[in-house]
Amino acid sequence: MYRPIYFTLLFCLFFSLNSSANDGYKLWLDYQPIQEQSLKSEVKSLLEGIYFFGENPTFDAIKNELNLVAKGMLNSDPIYSKDRLQNTTFWIGTREQLSQVLSLTKQAEIKALGAEGYWRGEIEFEGKSYYAIIGNQPVGILYGVYNWINSIQSNTFNKSIEFADAPKIKLRMLNHWDNLDRTVERGYAGFSIWDWHRLPGYIDPRYIDYARANASIGINAVSLTNVNANALILTTDFMKKAKALADVFRPYGIKVFLTARFSAPIQIGGLKTADPLDPEVIEFWKKKTDEMYSFIPDFGGFLVKANSEGQPGPHEYGRNHAEGANMLADALAPHGGILIWRAFVYSHEDEVDRHMQANNEFEPLDGKFKDNVIIQIKNGAIDFQPREPFHPLFGAINQTNVGMEFQITQEYLGQATNLVFLTPMWEEVLKSKTYRPTPSSTVGSVLEGKETNQKMTLMAGVSNIGTDRNWTGHLFAQSNWFAFGKMAWNPEITSEEIAKEWTELTFGQDQEVVTKIDEILLESHETAVDYMTPLGLHHIMGRSHHYGPGPWVMGGRADWTAPYYHQADSLGIGFDRTSDGSGALDQYAPEVVQNWGDPHQIPEKYLLWFHHVPWDFKLKNGDTLWEGIAHHYDRGVKNVRKMQETWASLESKIDPEEFDHVRQLLEIQEEEAEWWRNACLLYFQTFSNRPFPTDIEQPEGDLEYYKSLMFPNAPGI
Amino acid sequence: MYRPIYFTLLFCLFFSLNSSANDGYKLWLDYQPIQEQSLKSEVKSLLEGIYFFGENPTFDAIKNELNLVAKGMLNSDPIYSKDRLQNTTFWIGTREQLSQVLSLTKQAEIKALGAEGYWRGEIEFEGKSYYAIIGNQPVGILYGVYNWINSIQSNTFNKSIEFADAPKIKLRMLNHWDNLDRTVERGYAGFSIWDWHRLPGYIDPRYIDYARANASIGINAVSLTNVNANALILTTDFMKKAKALADVFRPYGIKVFLTARFSAPIQIGGLKTADPLDPEVIEFWKKKTDEMYSFIPDFGGFLVKANSEGQPGPHEYGRNHAEGANMLADALAPHGGILIWRAFVYSHEDEVDRHMQANNEFEPLDGKFKDNVIIQIKNGAIDFQPREPFHPLFGAINQTNVGMEFQITQEYLGQATNLVFLTPMWEEVLKSKTYRPTPSSTVGSVLEGKETNQKMTLMAGVSNIGTDRNWTGHLFAQSNWFAFGKMAWNPEITSEEIAKEWTELTFGQDQEVVTKIDEILLESHETAVDYMTPLGLHHIMGRSHHYGPGPWVMGGRADWTAPYYHQADSLGIGFDRTSDGSGALDQYAPEVVQNWGDPHQIPEKYLLWFHHVPWDFKLKNGDTLWEGIAHHYDRGVKNVRKMQETWASLESKIDPEEFDHVRQLLEIQEEEAEWWRNACLLYFQTFSNRPFPTDIEQPEGDLEYYKSLMFPNAPGI
């Protein structure tokens, strides 16, 4: 399937080391010269008359950004005035700083936007007009500035139109699963950008660009370390290193969190126990936390994975999750810190359907967690599968702060090589109706916390960032980082809006380019589901590294095998989670149970997630189930080829390095889609004993060959 | 010692993501606009009249380079003529291709330069004058083109001066100690640039820039994998990946080698033995090698570490190194491949001074190795210490091909953070007199092979390249990669010449900049030796990771402890390797034994390497040994501060990102130099029981504190 290598070489030769080709490093902050003359002169006039109503580190960060904008868009330097009335056109400051020039109405309007909101628009003062970006806090202004820059990049800036915005979720957070040796669990973009060894003495300029990129999309918190945690991060040496990063991030409004290993009192505290009710343990965490705040006065808090997949936790001491979480929360509370406790818990000693275990653990504890605890719940109950129904905990607990955990890194969605825009999947989850606590509740409305008066709200995304020059390995994976930020800021935004914005910022505004790339983006998730896990199939990937298909994976603990999940046999396929089966469906609201309980009514995308269905079951389009599975897999492969054609048609309009980067990866994606289709269909055919539909490309290859493939150095583990 | 972080932040802010600051990626190939008008017009006239006397992939690579030169230096595109007499000024081709326009004398002169040599100068033809770059093979022309480019960069190009050159060593090779999981043993610049997982489908543009950089300094071979080898590299899947890299490198004249794990017949061949005399083992390697050549027709060969530090080898089967090496060499011979066998062998089961073990193993085998075997010998007998006397094998075996193994990566010389220019150390080794096989022989002359009629000559350097944006972690570590290439091309070159050339290519030609940076470079090695291991001390670094001082390291096998090497006691310090001691000195030629056998005559830099000397031993400057040790350590620290001052004085003349990068690292180097001095002097004082000289900065801190420091995630292991 690959073109001869020499082809590629010749292709690449012309944009190596010294050329100006785009290597993707600048992300969506690639400030290109403004083409449109009236926009150009308007921006120029603003950048030549800037006045800041004060000084602080965030304003310095804004100045740096304006310098870069002026350099990139106008090839000039901005002019900062020392007198607000002397040749100024552009005012930047907080509501308080500008109070003398703002009407009371405007002040009230801005105040209502909260700590991170901003307003931008024209102000009349003493007969003159000024463009202003105003927030209640400097960080809000920073967000406003990035929004203003985006409006220039997308050619939508209009001075006379006012614009105001504020985030709907309080904590918008990246979770790095980065280990202290710089490997990244489920990382497919190289290695950890945190160079712990050279910290705190060496500040890589990349840390600043990381902060800029996050701030530009509204991310305001990062957890630096893997949830499968190493207690060493809590030693003094590492606190100093984390402090150095926190100091870099602070002007960008980004707080640092760290993962806390529950057994740290034993590993680094010299204690014999980590029992959360033990006074010495309580004292250990109090002191540790105090020390942390001595280095990082605005430290965000801890993120904890406990009693899951072998991680230590309160269960070892006969305590429950609330007792474990609250003990840490108490240590953080005096400093205003937050304790995030993951709901992704399941045990191989528990025979209950893994799907049910989180609800079984957490529902009885609802209301028992401290105010500064947030329960972080994955979007689905299994584990970031290509598609999952929403997690039944959303809506089930309503007296506890809950937050979302999405996975930006593509552990189950093509890893290093597949183009998959995840936003439609996230949107599907956020718009899912929970029917609890109110009949109109959705996952998104639960997260916004209004219905429950939830004080702390959170959306976390497991980072896809690494040392690769373009940050995310696949250029298009940048869109998922971008989209996560946008969605955390506003869970009601649509995939179409995000796709358009990212594409324009990344590839410019040629309408053919935007239309075609958006088409690629918006179809890519359904395409991946088709060639990986259609119709509600799940957890049938390669063992451990999760790379490629592995529906035959057996051995070891049952809930890590594939047949546990697909349940294929001579009669049919799928996991019966109705009350006739595991009963997991009953953890949802009755309305959901009713909608999804009948295999003829449930949306087909979730069919095999909840039902064991005969091979000859009739799908809505008249296919039997077996035919439908085959058609989905085949369509997935064909849609990848369609993506390739669409991409190829843009060759003349895309930077050559970017073009070839994506072209090569799409060729790999085509091979991997074929691999998934062939391997899965050949395998499932051993149960269905039915021929493939004649209208599909016949799966080729030998099942034994596919089963024999080994990837001992696959990345991300 | 560090400045407050916020300082650094503000500093960095102004050259992040979007600016044009220099991140070091372009190495010494950073083609900047030509300032000098006459040079500019001369180069312009040449680049607008290029004629190639033929077509081949290397000429394509040359065209790519000329495109980049024209773009960077002139902001234009070159003009390639299709007719050699039509508006051409610049002729490029092989001697054969140009035979009609060259005098017989000139042809003979060029022919004598060999396959990789080149000539450049003016040719008169039919009354017109052309500038020409000519070689016997395309790769020679490529080297000539890079040499011509360098002459422009250093403003020394003069059309009317002829220049010819050819390498003095045949194989000029990088050894990557890169693992298949992308970790790099002794790597301090991030991770392996070989993205095995995405190969062969994805060709990172960086591979091409890597090839360009190597070709530009004459490197013509690379071993891709760690000498502590993984047999998986010899499986078909990985051969395809290696082939993809070989295809990229081929136009640049670079051959691919791989490391062969001696026990591969067992691990991937399904055999019960790896006995080199076993017919099945012989057949395994023959087939494996044939398969390798089916993918890479010009595959270089294998590099093998056997029976050393736990690696498998022929000893397990009662066979010697020659029997092991020759078996592999026989498999390679039909394809023209080369077998490189490392002489770095020692065993913890052997009680003999580790210094002696290589000679004990290899001297008796001299003459028993096949013609296509090269014995690769480290510069010294222990292990890449900050300074070592030359390895006694050089000159001791003269009927066997021998090659040099230098270490470019700074395992023992400051790793990720210290500025140490290694060339003076290498030069010291190459100029060391071996007195064998001729009275005037040096290590360098032995390597050139003329005295022994050695057919294959080799200089290998253990790579310091990784995924860090600037390739080598420390910007100045680029100088070591550069210097290695230059020295492998011409072992007679001086450190001063290399320093000047690298500095001019990297920082431009401002004479203050060049003078001061050369001063930093040329003093840096002696400085590091002073604060790490003065007067012949060695192997006193931290255990395993080798980061920082560890003169107290005890436990485990004796030859991996520090006291085994420094032998400090209440009487004195140093390893007696004279005939009264281990006798290692006697492995050298009698002239060396005579020069070094007397502690009063031996150069003091090697004193404690060969002699156990009383604390009150008088040094040449009148110091006692104890005082001398203290003065050396103290001078090392002070010289780092001098380097800092020199660097600081250049702030206005250096790119701000580069300036701050080096400034931060020099601050860390100062801290680490103090750490070495304090830890070592406090430790050795427990034996000497003498006060520190009053004229040094008194070592501060607590020995127990230094001993307690742990670096569980230090890079490179």
Q: Could you give a quick summary of the protein structure above?
A:
2 copies of one chain form a homodimer. Chain A is an alpha/beta fold and 717 residues long.
Structure explained in plain terms:
Two copies of one chain form a homodimer. The first copy, chain A, has helices spanning 5-13, 37-47, 57-74, 104-111, 138-153, 205-216, 236-249, 264-267, 279-295, 321-332, 354-362, 423-430, 443-448, 478-489, 495-507, 511-532, 563-566, 590-596, 607-610, 625-648, 656-688, 703-708, and strands at residues 50-52, 90-94, 118-125, 128-135, 163-165, 171-175, 221-223, 255-259, 301-304, 338-342, 373-378, 401-407, 458-462, 572-573, 613-614. With 717 residues, chain A is of the alpha/beta class. In chain A, helix 3 (57-74) runs parallel beside helix 5, helix 14 (478-489) crosses helix 15 and helix 15 packs across helix 16 (511-532). Chains A and B meet through helix 1, helix 3, helix 6, helix 7 and helix 21 of A and helix 1, helix 3, helix 6, helix 7 and helix 21 of B.
pLDDT averaged over residues of chain A: 96
Biggest sheet strand line-up of chain A: 6-7-8-9-10-11-12-13
Q: What's the alpha carbon Rg of chain A, rounded to whole Å?
A: 26 Å
- How much of the sequence of chain A is in beta strands? 5-15%
- Number of folding domains of chain A? 3
For the largest interface in this structure, which chains are involved and how many residues does each contribute? A-B, 70 and 70 residues
| Total helical segments of chain A | 22
CATH topology of the largest domain in chain A: TIM Barrel
**Helical content band of chain A:** 25-40%
Shape of chain A: globular
- Quaternary state of this entry equals homodimer
- Sketch the major β-sheet of chain A: 8 strands, parallel, barrel
